[in-house]
Amino acid sequence: MRYFKKYLLKIGITLAAILSFSAWAYYFSGLPAKLGLIDVPQVRLERCTRLDGSSIRILLSSEKVLEDFNGTSYLRILGSKESTMDTYSGCFIGNELKKNILLESSTFSFSYTNKGRYFYEVSLFSPECYDDIYLRVFYVKAFGYVYGSNLVSLSSEL
Predict the structure, then answer these.
(1) Report field, pTM of the whole predicted structure over 0.70
(2) Pairing with 123, which of 49, 87, 110, 156 sits 20 to 30 Å away (CA)?
(3) What is the DSSP letter of 95?
């Protein structure tokens, strides 16, 4: 009987560890997106307009409502000259944005819906003109993993 209780205790501790790790991996890591358990919304650049020398207005579209994705607290768009902007934390040094992050905005405004796609306008401030800028929308959660959309290329020809 004593051996049976020790065996049950070991099984219980093992199960508790597995369940704890599974909960942590689901809520606080990027594992669900990599395994295909959640579908990260893909964005598409529809239109880009340079308003004056320093302001850019872009129209993004998505097949899903961006604000409703996976408990998103807010949306943030970051732009860089390099296409290696993989993670949200990789865009920062401490609490400051890295030098290669050229565009930044948290002000998304929902515009309209058309044929199952949702359209958003974003205003960006760019003091200079650049050849190519790569944009990524990040879905920031208060206490969880920050997911990033696909990269969108914003070329100077637009």
Answers:
(1) yes
(2) 87
(3) T
One-letter amino acid at 30 equals G
Q: Answer whether 42's CB lies under 8 Å from 150's CB.
A: yes
119-142: average pLDDT: 81
What's 91's DSSP letter?
G
Q: Residue 12: what pLDDT?
A: 94
Contact between residue 43 and residue 117 where contact means Cβ atoms under 8 Å apart: no
- Within 8 A by CB and 6+ apart from 61, the residues are 43, 44, 46, 117, 118, 119, 120
Q: What is the CA radius of gyration of the chain?
A: 21
Residue 108 CA to residue 75 CA, distance in Å, equals: 7
Average pLDDT, the chain: 84
* Rounded alpha-carbon distances, angstroms, from residue 61 to 32, 53, 97, 121, 153: 23, 25, 26, 9, 14
- Burial zone of 9 (CB within 10 Å; 0-12 exposed, 13-18 middle, 19+ buried): exposed
The single-letter code of the amino acid at 46 is: E
Greatest Cα pair distance, the chain, in angstroms, is 81
Residue 15 has a pLDDT of 96
Tokens of 15: 């199960």
